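Entry for the shared binder. Reason: the reviewer on the internal report wants the predicted structure included alongside the sequence.
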Amino acid sequence: MADKPVIFFDLDGTLLTSQLQVAASSVEAIKKIREGGAEPVIATGRAIHEIEYVLEATGITSCVAMNGQYVMYNGEVIYENPLLVEEVTALHAEASRNGHDMAFYNAEKITVTAEDSELIRKNYVRVGGEYPVVDSCLYENEPIHLMLIFCEIGEEIHYQEQFPYFQFVRNSPYGCDIYPAGTSKATGIKQLLSLKKLSLENTYAFGDGLNDLEMFDLVKHPVAMGNATEILKQSASYITSSHDEDGIQNGLRLCGLLK
């Protein structure tokens, strides 16, 4: 198996600054580690079409997207795990009964169930995106890989109890990511490493949030950003500076990948 370093970068709060851009120091650092033979990979809850500007800025061509449900390596899709239609249908019906709007994701599209929701608007402003197209039935016509439910903090507990085959991971004050129970970014990373015969022994990950926990438990060298949650910092081998303070460059130096 190839033993070159493979480094997984979360996006929001990690590779992206608070202005939702890739810092110049990060672009330069990634260029240097690639020249040294390392393999940088994005590992994000976002869909591929949301992050094309990041791939262009960094030159990265591989991505574990939608919290491990969709994996691209050097521009080629090598793994995907679409959600089961009957399970999505049941959750959507319950959310509708409770007055909670949702979003549905696949590799090409994001759609939402309401055209004028304050929570939806705030969520996509937070990540620098536009209000998605309204289509409540995307999952009936195309495979989807990820959902969001827009609800107040704590309201997701009801859904977690009612739908144990999904996990509900809060990604903002406005809602939760939803994907199959027992899967995560780590699932997609395992698939990538296995299919491309890359060694787990030389893996690194940079992250800041709860959806990075399983990734940190998997890789050999987890690096928490200075702005990371305390829970994630407890799982880290290294703690670097924040995403607004050259945290990627400094973290790569901390773990010896960059001089």
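Summary line for the report: Residues 224 and 234 are 9 Å apart (CA to CA).
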